[in-house]
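Below is how a single chain appears once it has passed through the pipeline. First comes the sequence as given, then the structure the pipeline wrote out for it. We keep one example in the README because the format questions we get most often are answered faster by looking than by reading.
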Amino acid sequence: MPSNLTNSYRVVDVFTNTPFEGNPLAVFPDASGMDTATMQKIAKELNLSETTFVFPATRPDCVAKVRIFTPVKEMDFAGHPTIGTGYVLMKEGIIHEETKNFMLEESIGPVPVHVDKGLNPLIWLCTPPITSGMTFDRLICAQAIGIRSEDLIDISPQLLSAGNPTLFIAVKDKEAVDRVHLNFEKIDSLKKIYPDKFCQFVFTPTPEGAYSRMFAPDYGIIEDPATGSSTGPLAQYMMQHNLISASSGTRFISEQGTKMGRKSILHVHIKGMNGKEGIFVGGHVTPISECVMKL
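Resulting structure:
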C-alpha cells in the first residue's frame, strides 16, 4: 500500500433527491498512485455497495476511466457508480457541466452517459448488451427467498446479465416483495445449479413499473438499495413476459430499497421496439459530503 497518500473523495446518494435515501456511493475523482489492493481495502473500509476510483482514460472516446469496487470484489460494470461518478466528475470540473453526452471507460467497455440538464439533472446510462441465461425452478427460487411458491407470478425465474448475472424472480404483490428474506441453505441449492456469482432480484409489477429488492451476498452486499446494472435486464425480462410495453419510447420507474429505508427511484426509457436502440436507466444524485482520506 502506498504510504503518505492523501486523497479527496465525495459521497453522494444516487437515484434520489432526498439525503440518506437512494444508494450511497464514494467517488475518488483522482485515484492516481493507488494500486488495486489499496482500492479494494478502501472499498472494504467504507463498506458501501460500491466505491469508484477515477483515472485518465486509455480510450480517446472516453472522458475518464472508472474502476468500481464492492467491499469484496472489483466489478466490470455497475449502474449507480456510473451515474454517481458522472455527477461528481461534472462537479469537479473534469467534465464540463454543460456537457450532455460523454462516455466512461469501465472494465466492460465504454458506457455512454446522457444528462438531462436543469436545476436537478437526470443522469442516464445506456445499458450494455444484455444476455439471457438459464431458467430456474419456481419452488426452489421461492424457498431461496423465504416465501411461498404461490407468491410467485407464473413465469419462470431467469438469469439475465448486462455485466452482472442477476436472477429475476417475479412475485404477485408488494407485500410478498417485502416478506423476502434469504434462506442461505436453499441459495446453496441454486449455487449447485449455477455455481458462478449472481444476484437475486425480486420484483412485482406496479402501475408505475416495478417495486423491487435486490440481494447480492456473493458480492458482499446483503441487500442493495438501488441496482442500475440490473434494471436494464429487469426491463428486458418484463418486456419478454408482457409485464410492460415493449414499444419504443416506453418509460417506467423501478422503486427499490424502500423496505430497507433507502427508497430509490430508477427511471427506465426503452428506445426502439424491444429496446433495440437501447435501454436507458437514469436517476437523480444528491451530494452528501466531501472528505479527505490519509493513508
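The mean pLDDT is 95.

See the next section for the split statistics.
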